[in-house]
Design a protein that fits this description.
Strand content: over 45%
Shape: globular
Radius of gyration: 23 Å
CATH class of the largest domain: Mainly Beta
Number of domains: 2
Order of helices and strands: EHEEEEEEEEEEEEEEEEEEEEEEEEEE
CATH superfamily of the largest domain: Galactose-binding domain-like
Amino acid sequence: MVRLVYDGLQHTDSSNPDDPNNQYAKEDRCIMVWSKDNAQNAWDSQFWIITGQFYKGQTFELTMSIKSDYESYAYGIQLQGAPGEYLCQLTNDHIHFTTEWTTVTLTGSMDNDGQCVAFNLNEDVYANKYYFDNISFKVDGVEVVVNGDCQSEDVNSFLKKDGDGRMMKVDFIEKSSIQPAKPREIRDKEPGSTVVAYDFRSFDSYPYWSDGNMITPIIDSENGFVSEPQFNADGSRMWYQYFAANGVPVVLNKRYAIEVEIRGDEPGSFIAEMRWDWNVEPVHTTVEFTTEWQVKRFEFDGPVPALRCNVIFQPGDFPSTIYVRTLKVIYLGD
């Protein structure tokens, strides 16, 4: 079982070096990683903790202080062999970066052998800066990180991949040099603007992951995505869903809608979701359709809870075939 704990740190700007609240006298340096703007993949920018060899079943405890220029999340926390060699997730929990220093603690057990832990820092498709300090990683209770407080010049426990894509040793910056970030310019800032648009009739094959309750729609040059009723071995209808879009670049806590060209062999409706991490509650909308082709817009029921999202269609156990030619994701603003 993984335990995730957040605990805000209290800092002051006291000039007294003996003041226990003086962050610059006691913790004057940290690691900074800057992330790529308009990134295609969550792993385009990363931060690694080099742990040395660990083995499946060993316990871990990770503690570190974090902040970022803009509020953000790291959903992909990975166990890796050599840096860049993905093995599995360290945890299904996520780390929440805010503009204030926060302490995060993760505990659990290893699901694989490995040599390092990696954090994906491009869940946010916009450029950002991430800061790390007071880094501790214990395996079976034994500390494996050297210079976790960033006070010496030893960098052997850390690697980074900044927005330019180069994997390199970290360097340290003075915390006093961190300046408040300017308000972020949102690319899709005009309400009603299109974020992404797809014409499924032009797809050569279904491009997204399918497994379990995720099915692979038929691709048809006239009708686009064609999803048919699914059946269990006993002949009963099976509940199903599928990805209609993957990795849509959205802005945290903003509102969105979808616009679809759709019809069914019978009139009906289904639920559509926008989400990224399965442990974060998605936003929903109900997509309604008739037997005639119609272009219709549907607004989601709240601001998106992630920085890039999948659009998931959930026909469930609808008894007839559904056809979707086109999909747009529309920015609505606040």
